[in-house]
Amino acid sequence: MPHAMINGCSLFYTDQGDGEVVLLIHGLGSSTRDWEYQLPSLLPQYRVICLDMRGHGQSDKPKGGYSIKGFADDCIAFIEQLNLEKPHIVGISMGGMIAFQLATQRPELPASLTIVNSAPEVIPRKPAEYLMVAKRLFFAHVLPLSVTARGLAKLLFPKPEHASIRETFESRWNENDRSAYLASLRAIIGWGVSDRLDRINCPVLVISGDQDYTPVESKREYVSRLGDARLEVIEDSRHGTPIDQADNFNALLLDFLRQSGSAAPTQNAMNQPL
């Protein structure tokens, strides 16, 4: 399976299909494998690349500090090394943060952004937010990964019909490197590009589960500060929307990619007389 040497780190990726490029960026503690529900829908029309960020999956797990900017720098170098022209970038949770960082840093690179259950900052501002962050960091550092995995699996996929998804999630989560996971978690806290959203000049689709950690209203607020952007809310979904509502998610994503692709008419073209 292919690896790319990026910024001194060997990153694992999968590269399948033909057509416009769709780059899928996973979330914290996840990997390329968790896009398995999207591949059957995307591959008939697109070249789909899934990347394991450093510290995750089959990529190297170097010691030292991690940062969202560092993850974005890896993605930028990866895009340039593989000569990927104007990829559509899809990121969930931490992957959405990486996508925001990339698009504000290098706005000319992406053809579009799809941000899933994510935000352009994780900066506590109120006492309750500081308390929530402190609790999450404390328990992440104290509890074994197996306990965290079990709790998250029940929180994200609570229904009886989610039993097999819970089992897969828990098994994969337990494969995480603890040090790399904690370093990646610390990278999220305090990060933000909210003050640079005006640099993003590509179409943006924000998808939110109606029961995601981050309230829908907070997503509606930042979408209002983006240019060509819209918010879609998927009902009966938590943080793992591409998994627990795969069909609805895939339909929204495919529709957006068709509208944002190179074959899509531009606004100027649409306004020309026949």
Write a brief caption for the model:
By secondary structure, the chain is an alpha/beta fold. It has helices at 39-42, 68-81, 94-105, 127-142, 145-156, 163-173, 178-188, 216-223, 241-244, 246-260, 267-270; strands spanning 3-6, 9-16, 21-25, 47-51, 88-92, 112-116, 204-209, 229-234. Helices cover 41% and strands 16% of the residues.
Blueprint (SSEs and pairs):
Blueprint (H helix, E strand, L loop, with lengths): L2 E4 L2 E8 L4 E5 L13 H4 L4 E5 L16 H14 L6 E5 L1 H12 L6 E5 L10 H16 L2 H12 L6 H11 L4 H11 L15 E6 L6 H8 L5 E6 L6 H4 L1 H15 L6 H4 L4
Parallel strand pairs: 3-4, 3-5, 5-6, 6-7, 7-8
Antiparallel strand pairs: 1-2, 2-4
Describe the 3D structure.
GO terms for molecular function: monoacylglycerol lipase activity. It is built from eleven helices and eight strands. α2 packs across α3 and α5 runs antiparallel to α6. Helix content is 41%, strand content 16%. It has 274 residues and is an alpha/beta fold. The chain has a single domain, classed as Alpha/Beta hydrolase fold, catalytic domain (Rossmann fold, 3-Layer(aba) Sandwich), CATH 3.40.50.1820.
